[in-house]
Specification:
93 residues
Length: 93
């Protein structure tokens, strides 16, 4: 499934048939980046469909976290929840 510009990256990934569930995404309240577990097919889909693919960084979940030892991706500025909240706070929604 190709990237739909009318949806957030999270929504696109959920719709891509990659088996991702809500708990595969990470959000921090004051952070603009989206974190997603690096499950099979996710990186390949991003490479084929996400125009800012080259900006994605890899990391391993920190000890003590829910994702401890698991490979994950940090996708800069892709946390739509953060940006929606920012728009509301600025009266833009």
């Amino acid at each position: 499934m190709a990237y739909d510009e009318n949806k957030s990256l999270e929504e696109n990934l959920m719709d891509a048939g990659l088996g991702l569930v809500e708990s595969d995404f990470g959000f921090r309240e004051f952070a603009s980046d989206l974190h997603v577990k690096s499950k099979p097919g996710v990186l390949e889909w991003l490479k084929a469909n996400y125009k800012w693919y080259s900006q994605i960084k890899h990391f391993i979940g920190a000890d003590g976290s829910d994702w401890a030892g698991q490979p994950a991706l940090d996708i800069p500025f892709a946390n739509a929840r953060y940006w929606r909240a920012k728009q509301r706070a600025n009266g833009m929604e």
